[in-house]
Amino acid sequence: MTYFYRVFLIICLLCASRASYAQIFNNENVSGDFKNLSFEQFVKEVESKTSYHFYYEPAAVDSLLVTLQVEGKPLDAVLPLVLAKTDLHFSIDAAHRVFITSGKAIQPNLPDDFFKPQVAGSGVVSQSAVISGTSDAPRKSHTASAAELKLYEIGAGRPDNTKGKATLAGHIRESKSGEPVIGASVFIESPAIGVATDQFGYYSLTLPVGRHELKIRGIGIKNTRRQLVLHNDGQLEIEVEEDITPLKEVVIEAEKDKNVAGMQMGLERLDIKTMKQVPTAFGETDILRVVLTLPGVKSVGEGSTGMNVRGGGTDQNLILFNDATVYNPSHLFGFFSAFNPDILKTVELYKSAIPARYGGRLSSVLDIATRDGNKKQFAGSGGIGLLTSRLTLEGPILKDKSSFIVSGRSSYSDWLLHQVPNKSFKNSSASFYDLNAHISHEFDSKNTLYATGYMSSDKFKLAADTTYNYVNQNASLKWKHIFNNRIYGVLTSAFSHYAYDITSVENAVNASRLAYRINQANVQADFSYFHNAKHTIDFGTSSILYTIQPGSLRPLGSQSLITTDVLPQERALESALYASDLITLTPRLSVSLGLRYSLYNALGPRNIYRYLPNESRSESTITDTVSYKSGGIIATYHGPEYRMSVKYTLSENSSVKGSYNRTRQYIHMLSNTASMSPTDIWKLSDSNIRPQIGDQYALGYYRNFKDNTIETSIETYYKLMHDFVDYKSGATLILNHHIETDVINAEGKAYGVEVMVKKLTGKINGWMSYTYSRSLVRVNNAITSDMINGGKYYPSNFDKPHDFTLIGNYRFSRRFSTSLNFTYNTGRPITLPLAKYYDGNSIRVYYSERNAYRVPDYYRADFAMNIEGNHKVKKLAHSSWTLAIYNITGRKNPYSIYFKSENGKIRGYQLSIFGQPIPTVTYNFKF
After folding, report:
1. Which of 310, 603, 696, 740 is 20 to 30 Å from the Cα of 722, by its Cα?
2. DSSP structural state of residue 618
3. Distance (Å, rounded) from C-alpha 188 to C-alpha 33?
4. How far apart are CA 227 and CA 233, in angstroms?
5. What pLDDT, on a 0 to 100 scale, did the predictor assign at position 241?
6. Is pLDDT larger for residue 645 or for residue 418?
């Protein structure tokens, strides 16, 4: 009995001691007059007067100032005042340790219902958790913490699973906006099974039944996990939090091993945060300028947004904006891209191993996706620059079910032209605007509808005569249906319209309007089937109807003597079927096999000219004219397009990949300029102009260093191109009724090596790339008069052997960062006049072989500073300033070389677009 009383006494003393300790914990107060102290200074004051000890990340509080007067208040009452209007949280444990964290608080205690399992339905299950202390910031992060600790039961209550496996599916969405997270990795580690979310944030995994820890990582989101018990097929909808990256953390934490582990090669994926760090000419984020900094992507010169990818022409790139084709992706002579950066979500560039679902172009696919809009609350953003302003509004229509996002952008650049000390420019004007609207609506867990509309218009007038006006209009409608956890389909219809008008009214006698139109209507059905962990099958079909008005010239006004000239309409139908299978043969070896079969029909009504065989085509060699009725088939082309790639993992840090793809292109761009121009015209294949065919082989080695924070890759490629369009000397492209007499089918080859190094961590981050490449053309027809350079290979207009790009970012603090961009490349080829001679009584010029010379090499350096406002959460609006200098060295890079005959002599001149540094300032805001 004595022993019993001793034990009882010890327990009582321990309880009294613990109660006394708790009383000290609760009653130790803070007093003081803190005026304009940094958080670090405030902590030192508190630690010197109490027994508390703080733990925090200095970068998270570097902009926090404390101004506070308290007298005898407990610390857990003081800290909410200090951390108000920030996203910082605090926790205090029994040992007087204070933890300051960003986004969510540390939980010193487990939730009361932690060990109670929860059956997961089709939605996110979240329970409140026990939190020691928080600021006045929203408590969503605490819900996320609880979600990580909960145990979800998937498929419980159904008949026993005899297969031993079940399929888990769902969506990954951002908690604050409801936006789908694209490209997030969803996986378990044992056994190693994972998948990346698609463009809708959808994932599907076939896993062994039983207990698993599901991990989620993605670009711009915080890593999270879910504890689950998988009984049968079921759904788990997951909400994740946006990641506000501290200075010393990874800039792109998610998919950091994608460079090595990913199946796709030749893919460059950019998010809007990365693009905003690259300086541009007029201060506004320009996705096309950022794409041009990637290895293997070039343009012919400054002020041009036409892309040349791995030796291909500017018309060989398929540019998609929410699945609608964009024919002219630029504004204002090519100085601005046609896409408002504030509504963009992701940009993907496929340079090789192009997926089978894409077709119609030889060289690349640039797939641009917009955000769906905030499903949780109303928000907005915008910017004011020296030449343009933009505004974006978004919000829920039905909360958590449907949302909208609308944006507008406009320029006011005339004031700048009027400052130029040149009379011609003072009388000039240039302006543009674009509008975007996107709506998404989720009818239920299996059916979602997406609608997108886009319109842009440019108008400019040089001097006081000719006015140029061109318009882009795009619309798309998508319906996504989930049949079950393993298969879903997307039905898409889209419409694209591009048109330009050139009017001249100064001289009433010659007043005229030159017009061009192209319309494209397409429908496609795409399906994804997740058979198991070793097979992911994609298949579908598509059809495109082209309608082109090749050109018309009409008089303006009653005094005009211009004769009406209208080229006949062109129509064609392009259809395709495709299927591909991503096969995981072993943990190290994966193969993707795809086949696309395309069928093209040129349609009437139209008259087609026949020419003498084995003779150069000209009006004098026309032998017949064949008339086709409406819907009649003028010509048919078809054939397979093979898509194959393989990946072999050498180690967890390195892999090799190879690919082969064949592509077919049935539409050609005709241009009399080296760069992409608003007045370029598109021509459909017919019986006289054959479609283009391309074959590309690629091989690459990929290795990551320092825990996947530094990515390196080296890719080499060899490409063959057949029947792409080149031009005879002196070709006429505008209003040519016999355009096939001035164009010829050529063949080409391109090869090169691309080296890329990316650093994704720390205060200094960015990428560096070097490309050696050649792009060569040959016209070696049996008809001698059609040969160019004697049938030998010659450099294409965009052949630039050496290209080096450096993008570097340095972040001093959360509020201040700098960016540096340096670019060097070989000058592009040109044809020069070498001599003049007399032919009878006429003086003629003798030119070199085509593209035998080059303009001087190009290099440019840009610098930008980004200054952000404070990071308080409860503010009316968050703002930032971007100060940039484009071409800081003031180098006069040659855009073109041209020649004039003056006083009997031929003189050469160099045209430079930007011959001096261009400073810009942009104010950005978000609310």
Report:
1. 603
2. -
3. 52
4. 16
5. 85
6. 645
CA distances for 435 relative to 133, 391, 631, 704, angstroms? 45, 10, 35, 41
334's torsion region: left (phi>0), alpha (psi -120 to 50) or beta? left
- Distance CA(254)–CA(215), nearest Å, equals 11
Residue in 317, 361, 759 with CA at minimum distance from that of residue 576: 361
Going from the C-alpha of 125 to that of each of 118, 272, 446, 790, the distances in angstroms are 8, 30, 19, 73
User: What's the CA gap between 905 and 68, in Å, rounded?
Assistant: 81
Token pair belonging to 407: 């944006």
Residue 243 sits at φ, ψ, to 5 deg, of -100, 120
Whole-angstrom Cα distance, residue 900 to residue 910? 11
> In angstroms, rounded to a whole number, what is the distance separating the alpha carbons of residues 736 and 530?
51
Q: Token match 């049938």: residue?
A: 791
Confidence of residue 142 (pLDDT cuts 50, 70, 90): low
How much is the average pLDDT of 470-490?
93
pLDDT band at 138 (very low <50, low <70, confident <90, very high): very low
How distant, in Å, are the alpha carbons of 77, 97, 787 from that of 29? Answer: 9, 15, 92
304 — pLDDT class (breaks 50, 70, 90): low
Interstrand relation of 429-444 and 447-461 (parallel, antiparallel or unpaired): antiparallel
Confidence band of 252 (pLDDT split at 50, 70, 90): very low
Contact 480, 461 (CB under 8 A): no
The phi-psi region of residue 21 (left if phi > 0; otherwise alpha if psi is between -120 and 50; otherwise beta) is alpha
Q: Are 263 and 590 in contact (CB under 8 A)?
A: yes
Task: Say how far apart CA 497 and CA 495 lie, in whole Å.
Answer: 7
Q: Decide: 279 and 922 in contact? Cβ < 8 Å.
A: no
User: Cα-atom radius of gyration of the chain, to the nearest Å?
Assistant: 32
Nearest to 797 by CA among 823, 775, 771: 775
Q: Which helix (H) or strand (E) holds 441?
A: strand 429-444
Q: Which of 131, 128, 142 is nearest to 175 (CA)?
A: 142
Tell me the percentage of the chain whose pLDDT exceeds 70: 86
The residues with which 906 forms a beta bridge, in sequence order, are: 901
Q: What is the DSSP letter of 780?
A: -
pLDDT tens figures, 553-563: 999 988 888 89
284 with 895: CB under 8 angstroms? no
Other CB atoms within a 10 A radius of the CB of residue 363 amount to: 30
- Report pLDDT for 878: 80
Are 197 and 183 in contact, with CB atoms under 8 Å apart?
yes
Nearest to 467, CA basis, from 478, 458, 476: 458
- CA angle, corner 893, sides to 889 and 898, nearest 5? 155
Confidence at 160, pLDDT banded by 50, 70, 90: low
Residue 197, Cβ neighbours under 10 Å: how many?
A: 23
In the block, tokens 């029994």 appear at: 94
Spatial distance between the Cα atoms of 733 and 727, rounded to a whole number of angstroms: 9
Of 236-240, 301-305, 321-325, 817-821, the range with the lowest mean pLDDT is 301-305
- Indicate the pLDDT class of residue 25, thresholds 50, 70 and 90: very low
Q: Can you tell me which residue has the tokens 């070896």? A: 589
Residue with tokens 């209003």: 735
CB–CB of 347/368 below 8 Å?
yes
So what's the pLDDT on residue 668? 94
* Nearest-10 crossing angle of helices 39-49, 75-82: 170
- The Cα 174–Cα 377 span in angstroms is 13
How many CB atoms sit inside 10 A of residue 453's CB?
18
Q: Residue 648: pLDDT above 70?
A: yes
Length of the chain: 927
Q: ω before 191 within 30° of 0 (cis)?
A: yes
- CA–CA separation, 326 and 737 (whole Å): 26
The DSSP-derived string for 56-115 is --GGGGTT-EEEEEEEEEEHHHHHHHHSTTSSEEEEE-TT-EEEEEESS---SS--TTTT
